[in-house]
Design brief:
By secondary structure, the chain is α+β, with helices and mostly antiparallel strands. It has helices spanning 2-36, 41-70, 82-95, 128-133, 136-151, 154-181, 189-233, 236-247, 274-277, 285-293; strands spanning 73-75, 101-105, 112-118, 121-127. It has one domain (2-293).
Length: 295
């Protein structure tokens, strides 16, 4: 088990490195184009790198709290939800990580997610619908799944994907507006038109690229978290039965957005809204259940 965990953490570190490298190459390209509009590409690169680093640092340190606030999650005490706290504490101890903070989302929808930037700054959020409709073993399986995400540093990888995608969207918007409305130095109309087209392409493709990156990272990590949850609880049937109930839930998780949907244990959108599920970051629930039941 320790070997499996080591490999998963190492793979996440590798994915994070190449993810950051890819996004910074795109950011440098956008900065070069912004600078080109004013006849000084290198100033544009310096400006975008500086702005991108500042943005990344701000969101990195505040991102977990921002996600919880967007989700409508409220931090709760051990006195308010003793069973939830004891379950999180016990599984964190078994996983060998610090106990995350506990949050509750008041909604009949059945869902949960973990967030934060590292082991010492993490949180687990569950809905009241999940706690009301699952039995003890099923709830333990779901929380173990979220603890596994924290232990495997999945939350860090996915937060970096969201942060850097946000930087690219912001820079593409700046480039578009500058190409459309600025004087543009000594560049001719043809050059400005090419840059305008590039900016429009980035604006259109950035959300799609973001979803594809999250899809590539998320589906594999969901299977890994399921497997580790089964090891932590020594009861794969608990999580399997929980996923059956969650998949049959007709409620849509409120306040879920395109940038946070990948964090939840199950797709937060209503299954009938197919356009929202086109690029689902979650593997098929039936396959997840099948793998758990075969353990």
């Amino acid at each position: 088990m320790k070997r499996v965990h080591f490999n998963e953490v190492r793979n996440n570190n590798i994915r994070t490195f190449f993810l950051i490298l890819l996004f910074f190459i795109i950011i440098i390209l956008l900065g070069w184009l912004i600078g080109f509009l004013f006849d000084n590409p290198y100033v544009g690169i310096g400006f975008t790198l500086f702005g991108g680093i500042i943005y990344t640092l701000v969101v990195w340190f505040a991102g977990g709290n921002m996600i919880l606030k967007v989700a409508g999650a409220k931090e709760v005490s051990k006195k308010e939800y003793p069973h939830l706290y004891h379950t999180v504490e016990g599984l964190s101890l078994a996983a060998g990580i610090p106990t995350p903070k506990c949050y509750v989302i008041d909604t009949p929808a059945m869902n949960a997610f973990a967030t934060g930037r590292d082991l010492d700054n993490s949180a687990v959020a569950v809905t009241t619908g999940l706690m009301n409709k699952l039995n003890r073993e099923e709830l333990e399986g779901v929380i173990a799944h979220e603890i596994a995400h924290i232990k495997n540093r999945d939350i860090r990888t996915m937060m970096m994907a969201a942060i850097l995608t946000g930087v690219i969207v912001l820079l593409a918007d700046v480039l578009f507006r500058m190409a459309l409305f600025s004087g543009g130095g000594n560049n001719d109309g043809r050059s400005r038109m090419i840059i305008l087209v590039v900016a429009i392409v980035f604006l259109i493709l950035s959300p799609i690229i973001s979803e594809l990156v999250k899809l590539a990272l998320s589906r594999k990590r969901e299977y890994a978290a399921d497997a580790q949850a089964a090891v932590l609880t020594r009861n794969p049937r608990g999580l399997a039965n929980a996923l059956k109930k969650i998949s049959g839930d007709g409620h849509e998780t409120p306040n879920a957005t395109g940038s946070t949907a990948h964090l939840y244990i199950s797709n937060p959108y209503n299954k009938k809204r197919r356009w929202k599920n086109l690029f689902s970051t979650h593997p098929p629930t039936d396959e997840r259940i099948k793998r758990l039941e075969e353990m």
